[in-house]
Amino acid sequence: MTAHTAPSPGLAQAGAESCSHTDTVAKFFRALSDPTRLKLLEFILDGERTSAECVEHAGISQPRVSVHLSCLVDCGYVTARRDGKKLRYAVGDPRVADLIVLARSLAADNAAALTCCTRIPASQG
Question: What pTM does this model have?
Answer without folding.
Answer: 0.76
